[in-house]
What does this fold into?
Amino acid sequence: MFYESNALRERIRAIPGVTLESATNYSVVTDRLDMNSGYFEAYLEMGGAKGPQQIMAYMVGASADFFAKRKVQILSGSLPSADKMNGVVVNQAFVERYSPADSPLGKTVRPLGGEEGGFFEIAAVVNDAWFFPAHIQMIPMIYMINPGQLQYFQISYQPGQKYEVWSKLDKLFEDVSSQGILGFRSLDVAEEFSLFYQPDRVYVTLTILFAIIICVVSIMGVYAVSSQQFYRQLKDIAIRKACGAEFKHILALLLKSYIWLFCVAAVLGFVGSYYLSRLFFARFAITVAYPWWVLPLSVIVLFIVVFLPLYLNSRKAWKADPIQYLQSE
Amino acid sequence: MITISDLSKVYTTDTVETTALDRLNLSIEKGSFVAIKGPSGCGKSTLLHILGLMDTPTEGSYILNGTKTESLSITERDRLRRNTIGFVFQKFNLIDSLSVYENIELPLLYTGVAASERKDRIQKVLEKLEIANRKNHYPYQLSGGQQQRVAVARCIITDPLLILADEPTGNLDSLNGEQVMRIFQDLNAEGRTIVMVTHDDKYASYAQRIINLHDGRIVVED
It folds into this structure.
């Protein structure tokens, strides 16, 4: 028996609280979820001006309204019409890897060793979409529209309606299953992603902790080094005090020696971190822009790391009794 | 110029209290040249440091040029010292990493004098003390007498009302010692008040007034 998927989708959409519904033949979550079924690696041959080219891509099925509903932008071409059964859609990663110099639209793709004459034709290019955890590199994908086996439904619902919607979905699928058609199970993507990213959150927490420790150790380091310098300069500072130097003059004296440290650290730190972060984030399909305050914050942190110890040492030196360093007897 | 009343300085450690100055009363007129004499440990350097606002008394009051100093903050003391007092030390206390010119320039930098004026004033004082040919030398390249003249130049560059000299001839031979004393006489003749600590009767005799200290008290005043 075959249960008509569009009828099932209509019933899902009719549940109060459901805001979005789309369907694919792959799970939107991976790893500990149902990654073995759904999309699959396909070894294919793509035709082009320079002759056939062997490619590998993940072939997935999606409903025709999938891209609109999930706000996946169509970059070029148009979605294949319902009567064009061999029309496929590729993503940006596919284009960057296999057709970076010319448009892939109209190119044909056929399975390696497939039947003679059976082929797909690329009808559209869509943006790389984040259906996978963000740390997984975006992969070349070929979407087959309405492949006839839409086994995963991505359902969004209004906030706070989880239990109402889920109970109705359970009833719906039990009803469908009672006809002996479908087995089913449901996964809360937000929860699964939350679980999935738990190690990353620990990593982030540890990173922040280590960053704080590094700042504290750096402050202690600069404090120790500047203390040593102050200790060597105590006589000079005493002489300067006798000449009328105020705290600001003592502070300026120390700052002058450390301004280069600050500048070098700032330049190396900012250029290095910018370059390394670009390198690191290049692996990700979706990256989040830095909030505007990250740069000023890092300048402030660097300023504190360098100048707090200097300030403390300057005060200590300023308040030190100069007489013992100036005495004659 | 200077009025101190019942001024005491007591150094306290865990076990011992040492009285360096004991209820001292002293008045020094503007334009006078005063020598403070006494044996080691009698409190003369302590007195000089308090007069120079480098140290604070345990008790008593000190009025400098009309300003009560007890209630001043550290910064206010720094400013009063910078604008009123010049120091000359026995060990010269020049900064080794700075040239003669830069050493003399130091108080002017803290006073905020403009660069062109600094240059003029330094040049004048270098010529006055006959060390103009040494302005680019470093202290270690100078003799003791020359170093002390640089120290005097640094002391007078801000035109202070009061010059405090702590054994200024202590590290000099008699010839250089005499030269320094003559410089002090000239500065005093220009109207500057000079308070000098010395062991040596010969140099003390340059002063108009000699104060003998013993155990933190004035015992004889000539």
